Records
---
Amino acid sequence: MGDDVIMTLPADAHVHSEWSWDTGGPGSAAAGTMRRTCERAVRIGLPAVIFTEHLDFDGWMIDSEDVDEQAQKLITDAGRLEPPPLDVDGYRESIDRCRQEFGAELRILTGVEYGQPHLFDEQAAALVDLDSLDRVNGSLHTCAIGDDRAEPFTLYRRWPAERVMSEYLAEVPRMVAGSDSFACLTHIDYPVRFWPAESAGPFDPRRFEEEYRTAMRAIASTGRALELNTQRLWPWVPQWWVEEGGRAISFGSDDHETHTLARGLPEAALMAEHYGFRPGRNPADFWTR
């Protein structure tokens, strides 16, 4: 992927701590995750970390077997998972404490992973000033099913796998057109994480290439960035992104447990370099081409 070696890691721009509801929250066993994450970042030489806590509203239908015991407490009698609001004040206080302790060695930035922003901009504005954050990642985690919404792993039980992928990718342009609140779209391969290979066969991105390209064109047309989510690195993601006009990317481990912080970042940086992306002046800047 080129003769030059990337010597400096980019920022991990998609990281969760105890302030995200799906870690159990600040009063759970996850307490102190932000501090431990900063310790690990310093230890491995990561120059910057962006704590993008979940910013979710409303809720969605879910099968209880798909979540851990902690998250099951958030499921209502009607079978809907209702996430609590982000504790913005507690989160900011935790950021300040970590900056005081680690700021000399690590750049610590604020952010959110904002779920379905095209549906909830009014609610988000009432909770937090998004412009005051260093990064707003936009995530599409759910799709409409009747009068409700559900995550892909729930939808795969109810719809053919091809329909889940198609419905998800068709909503990406609607999300882009419906909200200016986010700067980067995260894990565009999100439904692939739960692809039912046993019933649908191995996942082949070429089956959905035009739908992926349409989604990417919508993102690129607004000048926003696309995340290389390192839970699984797919070379077709940056390739199609570039071919559809994408000019900026971000890197994110989607870490929830500290030990996966920065996983795959060196490989992702080399992949990005291969497709013509170069780092900005600061480690937390988008890479651009």
---
Amino acid sequence: MGLFGPSKREVWEQLCRETQATYVKGGFIKTAKVEYKYGLWLIVLDEYTVSTGKSSATYTRIRAPFIPREHFQFHIYRKGVFSGIAKAFGAQDIATGDELFDEMYIVKSDDDWQVRRLLDDEVLRVRLLAQKSFSLHNRPQGFFLSPVKLPPGAEQLEFQIGGVIRDAARLKELFTIFALVLDGLCKMNAITNEGVAVEY
């Protein structure tokens, strides 16, 4: 226990004990991470920092590679300072039919019907509504689209939360949300349940 509460490692090790995940130490280049096997998927939790010149911002991130059955891209994020500007410039905002969810979130996709099917899960919507801010999207293969080299035909699901989370219970909840999204995409037949070998 540090002066300002538990360290990242302490929280992540607690998370691993409670979820049967694996803590992976960081090194000179790679950062520490938590790996969680869910079915045949490998879910990875880590943190990363983005520098913007005079300041920087740290994000908590959960990722998993998957094999898509069809082309289907989506991006779901909490409305904020820039969401109104994005809409003004023609960014697509898809209504889900849930008034509260549509009031709080921006939903973009190249397939309105499929993303509505994904968000038709009331349990998933309620859990997402409990999050203060997040970005959930899938990234196709490509140097500028995915910072990780994926196997041919693979894509990546990514869930980002602003800030550093030092609460094992909340991290478990984020894992649960992420698993619900993977399950939903699989039930929709949008992705397979196959595992993909990627070195994060």
---
Amino acid sequence: MDLVFGGGERPAEEVNMERKEIAALVSDVIAGYVRDPLDILQVNSTADVDLYLQQLAPTYVRTLEDILAFRPAPARVLEVGAFLGVVSLCLARLGYTVEATDIPEFMAHSGLRARFEKAGIRCQGLNLRHTPLPYADGSFDIIICCEVIEHLNFNPLPMLQEFNRMGSLGSLFYLSHPNIASWKNRLKMARGRSIHNPVNDFFIQLEPGYQMIVGLHWREYDGAEMREMLERMGYRVERQVYFSDVDLQVSKRRWLSKLAKKLLLTFLPGWKENITHFAVKEKTVQRAFHFTDATRTDIG
């Protein structure tokens, strides 16, 4: 792993030791939710949430490694789209000053709020379409926004401008999202299939008893698109890291799966399924956006 923030590269054995410790910390936080589950949407089911956390454990570890490499504690962190707050809870244990936000439907859960508050994490429910956001200028050294932007069904520029305002000069905007140019999407398109959510997901989203109120991907981006947006919103993109899911089940035939992995991991990095952007704030951008009833995002 390329760790270049926060004072240069570190010895591989130190990174490996740290990775084990971080993985153990993530596992401990997730185990707390398994022991004491939260029915966050009060639909009498926690099984999907538990499975979701287990599947995302490697990405939580990756995020924590990256944040520690950029700036060790103490530092001021905002996690946007925190959900159950595995990353926030881990960072708080590591000595960071953490605030967490997600949609009001999640943050209204008393059990979740109690868990955050016990860890010393300030939290509040926000819908990101309602700008300006309630944080002061330059409030944070690090803003984390993982697997959020693809769920927004509105123009993200006002939100990005707010993140830019809220970060201090030299702060990190750590943004991760699916790659619309991934091999999976390319294969679907080549077969004449849609790369978007199936129509049935629109029905599921509005059905009682389901937790997918924000599960739809309304707009995914490739690396070039996101770099352009970030640079025009005052950031310098230090790095873009493409990464793949933990398991690439391309084919039941072992040789084909190995070949596909090699191509993806070595020769076609832009075809991997996910992208993380390390964007450092160079300047504050204040664009005078023009809204109409059809485009405004700050109304309830």
